[in-house]
């Protein structure tokens, strides 16, 4: 499989399997994380040839960016990497609010640059809309930052179809990040077609449906993190999902491949998806996900797999 792609119409050349680093320093998102394991995850990604790392301020309130920055400095590989980060979350008296104002985003980019120990960010996403700042204006702030060389490409995440169009009113949007996997297909209705039509790269988050698509869970699995509150892991929906994953497992076995690799390879067959950013808690998981590059799905196989989850 061709391993490198340009993200949409940007100048960013990424390996098709990146690394989603929300478990690197993301102590506010997952229990029992350890910073040293987080740094090992980044080192493992680099050793495995990954050149596309996805982080955000909210992953550990800057800790993920700091740990990535430390490893990138230690390895001296800044120029070989595409680093994506996101902002919009603001700490106010111990709670988190969203802010897309020009002043706030500009100051957040400066703070991300410091934490990442760099003088440019390859791809900056507005993480969530704040519900008040006009979205074309928000994209305009990022355009300003791009013109100044602080960021190299303009991203947005978690917008609905209407918001996506508003954000892209001046055609500035280059990369969109939204939830999408074999299990969560809503983006197929409007978001993916819009991105495809406008040359915007779509980066799917939760590509493994938070581990569900690895096939490792059973109806008796007990979740201790945010999965215990997610609809995909609840009651009848969970049982239904497990049955579909069993069918995926059978399809993978027929191809002598692992379930997770087939689920990730399927995403790479979709239009507008140049790269994926599976997450990992342990270096072995990260290494395992990179094996996705060893398999290629035919159109018939991709359609069959798609049908299992329709
Ligand atoms: P994901 O990629 O769907 O699932 C990752 C989780 O699955 C891992 O943390 C691990 O959890 C398990 N896993 C991964 N590889 C495995 C393997 N080979 N074998 C067994 N288990 C494996 O979910 P995600 O990491 O939350 O999402 C991916 C990335 O998208 C994030 O890291 C983040 O960068 C980004 N993201 C962005 C947004 C946004 O709002 N823009 C939202 C969410 C995520 P366990 O070991 O605990 O099961």
TrEMBL record:
Pfam families reported for this sequence: Aldo_ket_red (PF00248)
Protein name, as recorded: Aldo/keto reductase
A Gene Ontology term for the protein's cellular component: cytosol
Keywords linked to the UniProt accession: Oxidoreductase
InterPro entries (alphabetical): AKR, AKR_Detox_Biosynth, NAD(P)_OxRdtase_dom_sf, NADP_OxRdtase_dom
SUPFAM superfamilies xrefs: NAD(P)-linked oxidoreductase
Keyword Electron transport among UniProt keywords: no
Annotated organism of origin: Bacillus tequilensis
Molecular function per GO: oxidoreductase activity
């Amino acid at each position: 499989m061709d391993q490198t792609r340009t993200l949409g119409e940007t100048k960013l050349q990424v390996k098709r399997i990146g690394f989603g680093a929300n478990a690197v320093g993301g102590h506010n998102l997952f229990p029992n994380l350890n910073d040293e394991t987080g740094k090992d995850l980044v080192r493992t990604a680099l050793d495995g040839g990954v050149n596309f790392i996805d982080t955000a301020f909210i992953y550990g309130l800057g800790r993920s960016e700091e740990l990535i920055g430390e490893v990138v400095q230690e390895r001296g590989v800044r120029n070989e990497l595409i680093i994506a980060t996101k902002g919009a979350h603001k700490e106010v008296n111990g709670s988190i609010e969203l802010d897309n104002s020009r002043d706030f985003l500009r100051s957040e980019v400066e703070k991300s640059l410091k934490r990442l120990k760099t003088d440019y960010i390859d791809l900056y996403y507005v993480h969530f809309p704040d519900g008040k700042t006009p979205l074309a204006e928000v994209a305009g702030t990022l355009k300003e930052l791009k013109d100044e060389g602080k960021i190299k490409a303009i991203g947005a995440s978690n917008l609905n179809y209407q918001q996506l169009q508003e954000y892209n009113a001046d055609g500035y949007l280059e990369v969109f990040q939204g939830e999408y996997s074999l299990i969560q297909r809503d983006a197929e209705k409007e978001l993916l077609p819009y991105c495809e039509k406008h040359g915007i790269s779509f980066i799917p988050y939760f590509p493994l449906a938070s581990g569900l698509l690895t096939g490792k869970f059973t109806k008796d699995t007990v979740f201790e993190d945010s999965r215990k509150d997610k609809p995909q892991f609840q009651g009848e929906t969970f049982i239904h999902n497990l049955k579909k994953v069993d069918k995926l497992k059978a399809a993978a076995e027929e191809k002598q491949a692992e379930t997770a690799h087939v689920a990730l390879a399927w995403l790479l067959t979709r239009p507008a998806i140049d790269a994926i950013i599976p997450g990992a808690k342990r270096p072995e998981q990260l290494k395992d996900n990179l094996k996705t590059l060893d398999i290629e799905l035919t159109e018939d196989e991709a359609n069959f797999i798609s049908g299992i989850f329709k």
